[in-house]
Amino acid sequence: MNEKQTMPVVPLRGMTILPGMLIHFDISRNRTIAAIEEAMKEDQITFLVTQLNGEIEEPKEEDLYSVGTIAEIKQLIKLPGDIVRVMVQGMKRARLENVISHEPFVIADITAYDGSDNPQYSPIEVKAMISGMRDILEQYFIENNKISKSVMSSLLSINEVEELIDQIAINIPLGYEDKQKILEAIDITERYNTVAVILTDEISLLRIKKDFQAKVKAKVDKNQKDYILREQLKLIGEELGENNTISDAENYLNQLKELEASQMVKEKIEKEINHLKSIGSASSESAVVRGYIETLLELPWERESEDHDNLKNAAKILNEDHYGLEKVKERILEFLAVRSLTKGGDSPIICLVGPPGTGKTSIARSVARALDKEYVRISLGGVRDEAEIRGHRKTYVGAMPGRIINGLKNAGVKNPLMLLDEVDKVGSDHRGDTSSALLEVLDSEQNKKFVDHYVEIPVDLSQVLFIATANSLQTMAKPLLDRMEIIEVSSYTLNEKVHIAKDHLIPKQMKKNGIAKKQLSISTKALELIISGYTREAGVRNLERKIGEICRKTAIKVLEDQNTKIKINEKNLPVYLGKIKYSFEEANKEDEVGIVKGLAWTSVGGDTLQIEVNVMPGKGRIELTGQLGDVMKESARAGISYIRSVGEKYHIKNDYFDKHDVHIHIPEGAVPKDGPSAGITMATAVMSAITDKKIRADIAMTGEITLRGKVLPIGGLKEKLLAAKTAKLKLVLVPKKNEKDIEEISGEILEGLEIRFVETMEEVLNFALVE
């Protein structure tokens, strides 16, 4: 029979107490502590009921479940921090009928269930119910191996239905919501079904969880525990059909299908992709293999661009971009004509050699535009490591392809124009000889199968149009020089520089500095003065800087007054550029003894070299001053030896050199001077000083001398003749063997110069000495 009682109520958060359960829990709320203390004063009986929402601090009647448990308080311990630990034992199910009071604690009317309403089962029904529940329990124990064997055996040995159900609810780890369902099942049949459903759901949940864990364990490497959570998410995505991402290896295979390459190359790449699959993404080798595959896929194995074969258009572009340089333009057009006729063929390897600022690099860019080729510039200045050309072995940390392969990759086609800039400035040390590494690249017979250490697969470079640039051939390795076609880009004449300035440099600098065409004009005379007085160079680099300086000063005035029109002439030029910096030594005004003009080649073009000789009484010493190099010192001694050998012919006494000292001096002593082209000049000056015969004031000469008085050929003739013309000299003596070089020099330079070819020192003296 159900009985009604009034007693203190203890609301519970996140837990449900069942009849027969012995458990302890902590309480800290004042009302709850007061209810427990009140119960201890009476019969130690209280009503435990679970809150619907555990976050509510002071629950009302509607915040509590309607069914709870009457429990006996077994123990009460006060802990630090105003916390009370209570041990209770559940006794009966009971229903919360009515809350009488909330202060100072909850008191309510409770109706206890005594079990008198439970149906009576026959022995067969009881046996069937127990057997069914045991079957469910056994399945549960198989799936959940965390239940101890003692609990398993004790549960399986119970023969009473109600006791079995209550003990399952007490001993099986269930959430408080499931326990509340069991508590609210007053009728034994309902309670039996509730427990059976809950256990069956738990079995299904455990099986699914085990299935996921088994799949994750099979996929995850034992050393990669950090990735377990990520793999679980991935598997869940696959189960739901939401994971459609393609792996890196599959991406690479898709790219490989579209790659234009030979079968051998494709097989090699496919082999590397399969290797990537086998090592897994977590391996340290994975990044190396991935980088290697990406490099191979980016190379243009069979991809090429279509070249233009329109000669007129190519010639037009070359003429637009560059003034002069006829020999270079002619060679490029020859290449284009041959390529059009043969429909392919090996590309030539051209080396443009000339002083700085003569436009070698920009010529290559113009050629690429004229032929409609992809343009790649590779700067070799100061490169000392062979691996920069041939690449690093894949086994090294940070390995990468060489500059040639990288250039090809950046171009995206197998037939670009590749500029090898400053090829004369590559070096060699313990890391290898860079010049030797370039031999295979620049050999049309070998570069069809160029092997980069990183790529390992032979790459065809035969269709690349290589253009190299160099300032001097002297420092280049001879085998490397042998593989290239040399085209000299010599110094510009004054007229050429004026044209280049008008057509290219002035428009370029005005645009760069924001100057409109009508706001600035520079006269031809002013340009000539800039070239001769403010720059001393073979090219036009400094000329462009000076024009830029004028434009910047103009910009200031334009900013002050938009209507300003600046006109630069030779008179107001110093206002913008300051005082004139350079002045060429002009021809001597009068014929003098022991003074003669020589011609020299420098890295910035030609220059005149005045040689002075004095003869003084002494003991036969030869004095050389003016920062002369070893070659010039030897030339001076050879010249004096020649004069001594022919002294009788020129009425020089035999003991003259024993009683006189000869002092040879070249002014501008701080500037080092060397080179094999001043022999006849020094010999002429010495002969003049000894014989006291004057030398023509308007003569200049260049050439080397032998002990027998033969005149040897020299280089840099164009630059030297330019210097003679600038110095306003009339007669130039040139070695006979340089006669063929005169044919290649433009009439503009030769105009106003009288060129005489000499083979012997006797001819030189006949032209130079004035009787």
TrEMBL record:
Q: Which reaction does it catalyse?
A: Hydrolysis of proteins in presence of ATP
Q: What induces it?
A: By heat shock.
Mind telling me which SUPFAM superfamilies this protein's record contains? P-loop containing nucleoside triphosphate hydrolases, PUA domain-like, Ribosomal protein S5 domain 2-like
GO terms of biological process kind: cellular response to heat; protein quality control for misfolded or incompletely synthesized proteins
> One GO MF term, please?
ATP binding
E.C. number: 3.4.21.53
Q: What class of enzyme is it?
A: hydrolase
According to its UniProt entry, the function of this protein is described as: ATP-dependent serine protease that mediates the selective degradation of mutant and abnormal proteins as well as certain short-lived regulatory proteins. Required for cellular homeostasis and for survival from DNA damage and developmental changes induced by stress. Degrades polypeptides processively to yield small peptide fragments that are 5 to 10 amino acids long. Binds to DNA in a double-stranded, site-specific manner.
Lineage, top-rank taxon, reads: Bacteria
Q: Where in the cell is it found?
A: Cytoplasm
Gene3D superfamilies, sorted = 1.10.8.60, 1.20.5.5270, 1.20.58.1480, 3.30.230.10, LON domain-like (2.30.130.40), P-loop containing nucleotide triphosphate hydrolases (3.40.50.300)
Q: Which GO terms describe its cellular component?
A: cytoplasm
* Family as reported in the entry's similarity comment: Belongs to the peptidase S16 family.
Q: Does the keyword Nucleotide-binding apply?
A: yes
Q: Where does ATP bind?
A: 354-361
Its subunit composition reads: Homohexamer. Organized in a ring with a central cavity.
Residue span, Lon proteolytic domain? 590-771
Q: Where is the Lon N-terminal domain?
A: 7-203
Q: Which UniProt keywords apply?
A: ATP-binding, Cytoplasm, Hydrolase, Nucleotide-binding, Protease, Serine protease, Stress response
Q: What is its main location?
A: cytoplasm
This protein's name: Lon protease
Q: Where is the active site?
A: 677, 720
Species of origin reads: Mobilisporobacter senegalensis
